[in-house]
Design brief:
The protein folds into two domains: about 45 residues; about 180 residues, no CATH class. The protein has about 240 residues and is α+β, with helices and mostly antiparallel strands. The longest helix has about 35 residues. It has five helices and eleven strands; from the N terminus they run ααββββαβββββαββα. The N and C termini lie far apart (about 100 Å). Helix content is about 25%, strand content about 30%. It is globular, with a radius of gyration of 29 Å. A hairpin with a 5-residue loop joins strand 6 and strand 7.
Length: about 240
């Protein structure tokens, strides 16, 4: 049987020092909980903006013999946001505004709601004598299967590539334009198209010996003429007057 002394010790009243420790422990937990809450919100915002910037400072980037003045928030990768010479520069803009990253548009740039509103662009020195429109007759016509099919918007026609063309899993999109070169783009098909943020691609010549390749979601083909005009106009604004 437990002795009276042991029983008295087990039921001894709690001292003030013990209560102080309990209070301090609960206070520490409360502070930790608040820190996690605040830190979590900050971290969530940081993760949402990692890699992006709202800075609109223009960087003078020289590619070949052409200088471009590009706002930092249009430049996709942090290491390219600097003045000086470069082999290429990668850009992104929100359609249809054709503007760079802002916190207000963070969901679009992070594709949180699968809206696919971003156009990706790459500017580099020309590697080919003809852009995609110029390659239609001498190259693509030899690789596609005729007669093609009506496209997703008025004026467009879709062509499948022949199995031995080297463009397996892609289609050729052609849009006729009176008095101007045709609109020509290649788009992914099947599962690749369904999962790609920008499943279509078109390249055009700009500036002094520069090539612009822009990639866009297939749904933007609904506005193919406006899209092409907006991309060319926006990139023209980036060229220095002597370009």
């Amino acid at each position: 049987m437990m002795s009276n002394a042991a029983a008295a010790e087990d039921f001894a009243p709690v001292g003030p020092r013990f209560m102080t420790r309990v209070f301090c422990a609960f206070a520490a937990l409360a502070v930790l909980s608040l820190a996690i809450s605040v830190g979590g919100k900050w971290l969530g915002r940081y993760i949402a903006t990692v890699g992006h910037t709202e800075d609109m400072t223009r960087h003078a980037i020289r590619i070949g013999d052409t200088t471009l003045a590009i706002p930092a928030n249009m430049i996709r990768f942090g290491e390219q946001r600097r003045d000086g010479e470069a082999v290429r520069v990668d850009l992104y803009v929100k359609w249809p505004e054709m503007t760079g990253y802002t916190h207000a548009d963070r969901d679009a740039f992070n594709n949180r709601r699968d809206t696919r509103e971003i156009v990706f662009m790459t500017i580099e020195e020309r590697q080919m004598s003809h852009d995609m429109s110029g390659r239609l007759e001498p190259i693509y016509r030899q690789l596609i299967e005729l007669p093609g099919a009506p496209g997703p918007a008025a004026g467009l026609r879709v062509y499948a590539f022949s199995p031995d063309s080297g463009y397996v899993g892609e289609t050729l999109i052609v849009g006729g334009r009176q008095g101007s070169e045709p609109f020509v783009a290649r788009c992914l098909t099947g599962d690749a198209a369904a999962t790609s943020l920008a499943g279509c691609e078109r390249d055009v010549h700009i500036g002094k010996e520069l090539s612009l390749t822009y990639r866009f979601p297939e749904r933007m083909l609904q506005s193919w003429q406006a899209l092409d005009a907006a991309v060319l106009a926006r990139t023209a604004e980036l060229l220095r007057p002597d370009a």
